[in-house]
Design a protein that fits this description.
- The complex is a heterodimer of chains A (about 55) and B (about 400).
- Chain A has strands spanning about 5, 10-15, 50.
- Chain A is mainly β and about 55 residues long.
- Chain B has about 400 residues and is of the alpha/beta class.
- In chain B, strand 21 and strand 22 (about 330-335) form a beta hairpin.
- The longest helix of chain B is centred in the C-terminal third of the chain and has 15 residues, at about 295-310.
- In chain B, about 45% of the residues are buried.
- Classes of the chains: A mainly beta (about 55), B alpha/beta (about 400).
- The interface of A and B includes residues 8, 10, 40 and 44 of A.
Chain lengths: ~55, ~400
């Protein structure tokens, strides 16, 4: 499972964890996160996330 | 509306670039012209104050140069270009300070996204080149350059920026002292009991705090600086960071006859008092609120992009927690906007969960520190947004 980093605020979206608070189940790959999902910390869009190598 | 005349944006910080990007999602063809007095690099200000912690150089923190941004945004970008005058009646901008080389550009819509500037304390020695404030990537490059080979840093100010840089420098193995006139940290943003927890966390990690005093004079001595404080204490240090507050840039707007208060005044449509001129980001005072943070900036960029595309849209500020990125004791807060309630506090060491509740138990705000920051999402849901 991959991790994605918000380049504006540093929040990590971990595919293994998902974001249950907003209905994104653990294990949800990045491609399946809705396109209008915003970074919970700074509200930038998915465009501003980069995949990070662990 | 003449679709061929450009939307002109002054400023290529997070506000300017985010607005351009949100606008392009809606409108692929209308020309955009961006003017910036800095180098036009795209970067994230929140990332600067964790640069050392993340092992990033100033170069690493630049996300894209102006050439790449111009390509990505299908925009014209003029860097190192300072707008000297806005003629709001003729809808023209002047740039260039030399009478013989003034350029004039006509705008159809103008957006002010020219940010805020740092306050500067004035005292004997305050002009020394090793006293720096850090408010953009160019400042940051200078800071990292001057930091080279140094060991000790003194930070003036115990606000959000001062505390983040204190923790970051500590993580970079520098010797850090914070001097501030306040009694606690993040004074004005969080209640004193939470500010004290942050002080405790940072102190335990190795930051030295000298509170309730200020720097009165700085003297250069051999290859170091001597800071003399208001209580007579002498501190030997190598570099001083000034983190003593930020004020919206209003001079340009004011000279154009645009209404300004603490910031450039706008309504909830981000419209200023002059037709076809808008403002967002750190320079703006939106419906009486100056919000020097990223969440409101992003909400504003989305709303204004729609408005500029012909779909007039109000910005809506839901609860927007402010985070202080101090790993020694992280802090998250939604400051209460109404002051008629009281704090309910659960505290265990430096870990605090505190909610500010009204007389009928509505949650009006909160502050979380240390391990309690994990409750941020659920608490933010309970707080009403700024009422718009």
């Amino acid at each position: 499972m991959k991790k994605w980093l918000c380049v504006v605020c540093g929040l990590i979206y971990d595919e293994a964890e998902g974001w249950p608070d907003e209905g994104i189940a653990p294990g949800t790959p990045w491609e399946d996160v809705p396109e209008d999902w915003l970074c919970p910390d700074c509200s930038v869009g998915k465009d501003d996330f980069e995949m990070v190598e662990i | 509306m003449n679709q061929a005349l450009p939307i002109v944006i002054i400023g290529t910080g997070l506000a300017g670039y985010s607005l351009a990007r949100e606008f392009r999602k809606l409108n692929d063809s209308r020309p955009i012209l961006m003017l910036t007095r800095d180098d036009g690099h795209s970067y994230s200000k929140p990332m600067l104050s964790i640069g050392l912690t993340k092992g990033k150089s100033a170069e690493d923190l630049s996300m894209a140069g102006p050439g790449k941004m111009a390509e990505k945004l299908k925009a014209s970008i003029r860097s190192f270009t300072e707008v000297s005058y806005i003629n709001a009646q003729k809808k023209q901008l002047h740039f260039g300070s030399d009478e013989s080389s003034i350029e004039i550009v006509h705008y159809e819509k103008l957006v002010l996204a020219n940010g805020a500037s740092t306050n500067h304390l004035s005292f004997p020695g305050s002009e020394h080149p090793n006293i720096l404030s850090i408010n953009d990537l160019m400042d940051y490059r200078q800071f990292r350059q001057n930091l080279n080979g140094k060991r000790r840093v003194l930070i003036m100010g115990a606000g959000l920026i001062g505390c983040e840089y204190a923790n970051d420098l500590l993580n970079g193995h520098y010797d850090v002292t914070v001097v501030a006139p306040s009694r606690t940290a993040l004074n004005g943003l969080i209640p004193a009991f939470a500010g004290d927890a942050l002080i405790q966390g940072l102190t335990q990690a190795g930051v030295k705090f000298l509170l309730q005093r200020t720097v009165k004079e700085v003297v250069e001595e051999s290859s170091q600086l001597l800071a003399i404080l208001s209580d007579g204490t002498h501190i030997e240090t190598d570099l001083i960071i000034s983190a003593v507050g930020l004020k919206p840039n209003i001079k340009l707007a004011s000279a154009a006859g645009i209404e300004c208060n603490q910031g450039v005044v706008t309504n909830r449509y981000l419209e200023t008092s002059c037709p076809d001129i808008y403002a967002l980001g750190d320079c703006a005072e939106i419906d009486n609120h100056v919000l020097l943070y990223v969440l409101p900036l992003m909400a504003s960029a989305r709303a204004l992009a729609k408005t500029l595309n012909g779909d007039r849209t109000q910005v809506s500020f839901t609860a927007m927690p402010v985070m202080t990125k101090t790993p020694a004791c992280p802090v998250v807060t939604c400051p209460p906007r109404i002051q008629s309630g009281k704090w309910l506090v659960e505290q265990d060491g430096i870990n605090i969960k505190a909610t500010y509740v009204s007389t009928n138990n509505e949650v009006l705000g909160f502050v979380l520190t240390g391990s309690c920051i994990s409750e941020k999402q659920s608490l933010a849901k309970q707080v009403k947004g700024i009422h718009l």
